[in-house]
Amino acid sequence: MTAIQIHEVSKAYRRFSRRRKFATLKSALLSRTLLRDLRVNEGFEALKGVSFDVETGRSVGIIGRNGSGKSTLLKLIAGIGKPTMGKVRVNGRISALIELGAGFHPEISGRENIFINGMMLGLSRREIASQLDAIVAFAELEDFIDAPVKTYSSGMYMRLGFSVAIHVDPDILLVDEVLAVGDEAFTHKCLDKFSEFRRRGKTIVLVTHSLDLIERLCDEAIWLDQGLVKAQGNPRRVVDAYRLDVARVEDQQLIATKKSPPTVTDDTPEDDVEHETEDEAGPGRWGSREVEILDVQLLGRDGQIQKVFETGDQMEIRLRVRPSYPMTDFAFGIGIFNAEGVSCYGTNTQIEGVKLGELHSEADVSFIINSLDLVAGTYMVDVAVHRQNGAPYDYHHHLYTCRVTSQVNDVGIFRPRHRWSFTGGVKMTLGNETSQNKPEEQKTLESSDTE
Amino acid sequence: MFANLRLLIRYRPLIQSLAARELKARYRGSLLGFFWSFVNPLLLLLIYSFVFTVVLPGTRPEGYEPYALFMLCGLLPWTWFSSSLLESSNALITGGNLIKKVLFPAEILPITTVLANLAHFCLGLPILAVFLIYYGTTVSFFELLWFPIIVVVQLLLTLGLAFIVSALTVYFRDVRDLLMNLLTLWFFLTPIIYPASMAPPWAQTILNLNPFTHLAISYQEVLFRPGPFHEVWRLAIVGGISVLVFLIGYFIFDRLRDTLADEI
């Protein structure tokens, strides 16, 4: 049986164009467009003809970038809002976990809110009364259930909302990015509940950015891109295709938004000194500019500009420098910081005892990292030319960013080359029964070992 | 449209709980609590009494004593009417989260507002009873039977207007400000703090076009004027108009329903 049928569904939101922006009753009456303006005619299309079916008992994950129409689609399935074109047909009682605790009233107790929320979701008073204890227990709020909801922490609030919604006992459960509620233990409980739903043959539609969850929970994934279905099918395949696409777009964006160094000024050095004290707190560049860093590039192994690196890739930081006069007192430095600004590594030619004689004209300086052994994340790069006593000629602070991606969700900053080894009573399995042991992980481990 | 109206019956328990919640939540944290339901109309009455006895002495028309009781007969229903409309104009916007995130008939929100204010009105009735007893006014039991009928007529009228106001405010936020002033005007165009008979003939015409005039007169007839209820026809006509307003209001709301979630 088909639980959800989506046929050629489009949804247009009215775009607030200039004409509409300041529309008031008066202007609508004056221009006699009151009725016309109340119709949806033109606008932004969140969905552009989406079609798919969901069989009863299947779990479907919907992925896609922000603004790709995921939540809109979910709302249409839930019946909140109507499609502009096309048909949505649903068989069975729906519970939508779109926003948890929507409709809680802060001034009244949790218990009263359970009743009202439950009734909104379609339960009768008696049904709620019989489930009340289970709802409270699941939310772990036994001690607070008679306190007004405004005294709840946000976690408690979400837990209560989740608990009510899940106890509606729907045939179809719609979930929109709500698993990030509560602590680890509660998340596990939610996931257990989902598994229970699956076992009982209920249909689940899950919208999330947590791709692991899709792979773990869903029978099928749908990738929405700009209001269209871009891929559909085996979650593993769809998620991988999506991941690749995200990396590609990130790469392009980082290259496009690369901060160009401030324009070169032809002022005398004295003027520069005054100038610098001003913008020291502002943009991340200072120094006397007796040597100027003209350009900084991050390059991959193939010598191409690159902003996204796989962990273990080669990275080259290339600076183009120009001295304003030939000099002997100079050193080059680099630093790598993670997104929190923690220094991951920093060095310069002087510390490392690189023997440099004279800088007399424009030059390229390359700092090559053979293997970028960092965990996944965004990193910022500092580059500098300075005197040997540390006084900067030109210091670029956090001006360059790159992303490191990884197939493994390891944590920390540094990813040392490593391997696992077992002796004695440990037996290895080859299947992927334990979801942590993904084949790629083993592959990357091997590849980084062989390098 | 009528299918949707029938659907509302299924949501009756929810409407009840929401209205109860509204009442409970309103005075949570205030010292006097729900006593404000009594105090508010009393204070209002005090102000008008002050105006008519101290500021403008001698303007009280003859034959309408006790004047405080006369005014109270109209003030209480008016308070219900005007605060219902004012609050409904906000109802969908403050409840926007619900409409956008939960599948739930939106008209429940203005209905709840009107009903919560009806409850307030009912809580204010004991004051009226106290006044009646204090002044020794005799109200016959049979005349009092008309009272709930007038309330029902007013309920229909208020609901109809609340539907229109709440839905339109979503599209044009200026309705709220417009409404505030309109209600002040409306108040003075209704014979509440003055008797209808005092108005000059040209104003009578305007008063007669105002449905609330007839409601106010009906209330006054039942509670203030001695003798049996004379205004059956008046009430029947305003009743018919109220039913019409209710249907038109619901029709407009129903038409706008599908785009509400996108507009809030």
Task: Characterize this entry briefly.
The complex is a heterodimer of chains A (451) and B (264). By secondary structure, chain A is an alpha/beta fold. Chain A is 29% helix and 29% strand.
Structure, explained:
The complex is a heterodimer of chains A (451) and B (264). With 451 residues, chain A is an alpha/beta fold. Chain A has two domains: 2-232, P-loop containing nucleotide triphosphate hydrolases (Rossmann fold, 3-Layer(aba) Sandwich); 258-405, abc- transporter (atp binding component) like domain (Coagulation Factor XIII, Chain A, domain 1, Distorted Sandwich). Chain A has twelve helices and 18 strands. Chain A has helices at 18-21, 25-30, 34-37, 70-78, 110-120, 125-139, 154-166, 184-199, 211-217, 235-256, 269-279, 439-450; strands at 2-13, 44-55, 59-63, 85-90, 94-97, 172-176, 203-207, 220-225, 228-233, 285-286, 291-299, 308-310, 315-323, 331-338, 343-348, 363-369, 377-386, 392-405. Chain A has a six-stranded mixed sheet with strand order 5-6-7-3-8-9, sandwiched between helices. In chain A, strands 10, 12, 14, 15, 17 and 18 form a six-stranded mixed sheet that branches. In chain A, strand 8 (220-225) and strand 9 (228-233) form a beta hairpin. In chain A, helix 5 (110-120) crosses helix 6 (125-139), helix 5 packs across helix 7 (154-166) and helix 6 (125-139) crosses helix 7 (154-166). The longest helix of chain A has 22 residues, at 235-256. Chain A starts with a strand and ends with a helix. In chain A, 33% of the residues are buried. Mean pLDDT of chain A is 80; it is low at 17-22, 259-282 and 432-451. Chain B has 264 residues and is mostly helical. Chain B has one domain (2-26, 44-52, 66-263). Chain B is 78% helix and 0% strand. In chain B, helix 4 (67-94) packs across helix 11. Chain B starts with a helix and ends with a helix. The mean pLDDT of chain B is 87. Chains A and B meet through helix 2 and helix 5 of A and helix 2, helix 5, helix 9 and helix 12 of B.
